[in-house]
Design brief:
Chain B: It is found in: Cell membrane. The complex is a heterodimer of chains A (about 270) and B (about 400). Chain A has about 270 residues and is an all-alpha fold. Among the domains of chain A are: about 80 residues, Cytochrome c-like domain (Cytochrome Bc1 Complex, Chain D, domain 2, Orthogonal Bundle); about 90 residues, Orthogonal Bundle (Cytochrome Bc1 Complex, Chain D, domain 2), CATH 1.10.760.10. Chain A is about 55% helix and about 0% strand. Chain A contains 13 helices and two strands; from the N terminus they run ααααααααααββααα. In chain A, a hairpin with a 5-residue loop joins strand 1 and strand 2. The longest helix of chain A has 26 residues. Chain B is of the alpha+beta class and about 400 residues long. Chain B folds into two domains: about 130 residues; about 170 residues, Rieske [2Fe-2S] iron-sulphur domain (Rieske Iron-sulfur Protein, 3-layer Sandwich). Chain B contains ten helices and 13 strands. In chain B, the strands form three sheets. A seven-stranded antiparallel β-sheet of chain B has the order 11-6-5-4-3-13-12. Chain B has a four-stranded antiparallel β-sheet with strand order 7-8-9-10, with no helix packed on it. In chain B, strands 1-2 form a two-stranded antiparallel ribbon. In chain B, strand 8 and strand 9 form a beta hairpin. In chain B, helix 3 packs antiparallel against helix 4 and helix 3 packs parallel to helix 6. The chains are: A mainly alpha (about 270), B alpha+beta (about 400). At the A-B interface, helix 9 of A face strand 4 and strand 7 of B.
Chain lengths: ~270, ~400
């Protein structure tokens, strides 16, 4: 106590108090914030003993129908599932965006709640009950086949149709109204393909007539290849804009800090001693 | 506050002639004021005596001055040569439409390199010459500047004297080699802006009004080709609501049966965002529906603000966002601005379907694409057009 008493009038004490208060609040939030998505994951896995459509229906009614409705029509502004198809379901659920306990402007990517088998059951139920939608053609398995895609063509198509939102190496970016184009660093080739044909959220659709499956494999090959490149962006990534831009930021911020420090030093200087 | 700090306490009433007894407040970083205060003497009086402040004027040895003069002159001559090199580079490397066939990019790179290097050398050499001049030729002062009294009638003459004295001391009057080489160094740099600005005109404004979408020499409307794959688009197959794709005009066929191609400049001007939405989602006046085919609508991808690629289309809100300054356009109602600094709607490309079912552009954009310019005038709808006249846009 003596230690604190002696230093409580120190000029830096105010900053220290604010800093520790922020750390304490952040820690409390991380511990106490609801994390029901994961809790539900365990209960769902435990209950998934049935097969196929019946199991899918059970999953749907338990986890999806509260927002999307038993009939899949959507309610209270929640989207309808009529005609979205299995690919859209697989994309939304396998990326962990659905089911969401906290529907917001946009769901972030999370660890998936359901197992692959459950997702297949759910997708089968949604596409048979509420009408099918775009599907990955049977002749293509993106996870296996992406490497045969024409990477140069894929890059050109990516640059003219994807890079405006997702950044030129798939690092994502901001949209309007709090929405954002997510980064593509964790997406599997199959998820990218599903996103292209289903157009999740605000993302436009690129159906198989507009961009053929082979051209889509080229896009996927570009994304997978470019994200595996060693990142030469230095300490911070800055969307892989490279070390020069990072150097510029470091220079600007660093010089600013030095100027601030210089002003602070001179301002504190005593006179005549 | 102690009694030695009367400089501040006394305010403006005190002049420089307060007498030698006054002690100055010490400034951090300067040696302690020993002996008589530096500012005690009247500057004008001292100037007439030949030096502003006795004991603080250091003239350089004549030998050092002469060597400095030579080296500074060499630097100025280098600057002159580099300045001439700037013009050589400017005229030697023809860029843009004057570039040699097929090497426009390379020519631009050489041009940039030549211009930058020569200009950098010229400016650097002048700076080096100036520095040598100051350090070797000009006398060296230790100066104390007092705050002046409010200006009075005598100020102008005093400034003239002061200026001439500075000119004399700098050596520009009595050392003609320095003077002449400096002038030589400045001549090319002085001429450069005139030549460069002259090349900005005369402008061919009409270039800005047209893109490569105008029908080709045979008058056939151009097909929309997907950028990258170069595939034409069947209107019936571009049918998934929420679809977008970036398209370019079909180029004129090349010579000898080769595939034609568009220059990068033409591509940049003509690049177009093709959007498919449900027909009932469009909110267009009937006459503008002529521009669309069953909910397929095409907008210039060049933002009307400063020309960034505005292509961040959200299929849920039908907004097109430009990432540079957040200009937001509504794709449903003809690309009207709903947010941001853009001053006018995105131009719409009039679409049609040809006999084989492919999407084509009826004509060029009826409005100039990209950032506005003084001579642009009212846009297509403001001009009172209700229906597209193919002659109008082409």
């Amino acid at each position: 106590m003596n230690w604190i008493t002696a230093r409580r009038r120190h000029p830096l004490m105010g900053y220290a108090v604010v800093f520790f208060a922020l750390v304490a609040i952040g820690t409390l939030w991380a511990v106490l914030a609801p994390n029901a998505d994961r809790a539900e994951a365990r209960t769902q896995e435990a209950g998934a003993t049935q097969q196929d459509l019946a199991a899918g229906q059970a999953l749907f009614e338990q986890s999806c129908s509260s927002c999307h409705g038993i009939d899949g029509q959507g309610r209270n502004g929640m989207p309808s599932l009529q005609g979205v198809g299995a690919a859209a379901v697989d994309f939304q659920v396998s990326t962990g965006r659905m089911p969401s306990m906290n529907p917001d402007v946009q769901m972030p990517r999370k660890p998936p709640v359901f197992t692959e088998e459950q997702i297949d059951q759910l997708a089968a139920y949604v596409s048979t009950s509420f009408g099918g939608g775009p599907e990955i053609p049977a002749s293509v398995d993106p996870d296996e086949d992406y490497a045969r895609g024409d990477i140069e063509l894929g890059q050109r198509v990516f640059m003219s149709n994807c890079a405006q939102c997702h950044n030129f190496v798939g690092q994502g970016g901001a949209l309007t109204g709090g929405r954002f184009a997510p980064e593509l660093t964790e997406s599997t080739p199959e998820q990218i393909y599903e996103a292209l044909i289903s157009g999740p959220g605000a993302m436009p659709v690129f159906d198989d007539e507009t961009l053929t499956p082979e051209e889509k494999l080229g896009i996927i090959n570009y994304i997978v290849t470019v994200r595996a490149e060693p990142d030469s962006g230095g300490l911070f990534n800055l969307g892989r804009l490279g070390p020069s831009s990072e150097g510029l930021v470091a220079w600007t911020v660093g010089i600013g800090l030095i100027v601030a420090a210089a002003m602070w030093i001179t301002a504190r200087q005593r006179e005549n001693d | 506050m102690t009694d030695t700090n009367d400089t501040n306490a006394g305010g403006g009433a005190e002049g420089p002639d307060d007498g030698p007894a006054r002690r100055r407040r010490r400034v951090i970083g300067t040696p302690p004021a020993t002996g008589p205060a530096l500012a005690a003497e009247d500057p004008r009086e001292a100037a007439e005596a030949g030096a502003a402040y006795p004991g603080m004027f250091h003239a350089r040895p004549e030998k050092e001055q002469r060597s400095g003069e030579r080296w500074a002159s060499v630097a100025f001559l280098v600057a002159m040569v580099a300045g001439i090199g700037f013009f050589v580079a400017y005229f030697a490397f023809r860029i843009g439409e004057h570039a040699p066939e097929g090497s426009a990019t390379l020519a631009a790179r050489y041009s940039n390199f030549g211009l930058g290097l020569s200009l950098a050398i010229a400016l650097l050499a002048i700076a080096v010459g100036m520095t040598i001049w100051v350090r070797k030729v000009m006398p060296h002062y230790e100066v104390v500047d007092e705050r002046h009294d409010p200006p009075s009638g005598g100020e102008r003459r005093e400034f003239g004297d002061y200026f001439m004295k500075g000119a004399n001391e700098s050596g520009i009057v009595k050392r003609p080699m320095l003077r002449r080489t400096l002038l030589l160094a400045m001549v090319p740099l002085g001429l450069a802006p005139i030549v460069l600005l002259r090349d900005l005109g005369p402008n061919n404004i009409e270039v800005l009004r047209h893109t490569a979408w105008a029908p080709g020499p045979d008058g056939r409307p151009r097909r929309l080709l997907i950028e990258g794959t170069n595939q034409p688009i069947l209107a019936a197959e571009f049918d998934s609501p929420g679809s977008i794709i970036t398209v370019l005009p079909e180029p004129d066929p090349g010579e000898d049966g080769h595939e034609g191609h568009l220059s990068l400049t033409e591509q940049a001007k003509a690049v177009t965002l093709l959007i498919k939405m449900r027909p009932e989602e469009l909110a267009l006046p009937p006459e503008r529906l002529d521009f669309t085919i069953d909910g397929i609508i095409a907008y210039s991808k060049v933002c009307t603000h400063v020309g960034c690629a505005a292509a961040l289309y959200e299929q849920t809100t039908h907004r097109i966002l430009c990432p540079c300054h957040q200009s937001t356009f509504d794709a449903r109602n003809g690309g009207e601005v709903i947010f941001g600094p853009a001053g006018r709607a995105l131009p719409m490309l009039p679409l049609a379907v040809d006999s084989e079912g492919y999407l084509v552009a009826v004509s060029d954009y009826p409005d100039a694409v990209g950032p506005s310019f003084w001579e642009r005038g009212p846009n297509f709808w403001e001009r009172g057009n209700e229906h597209l006249d193919p002659e109008e846009g082409s």
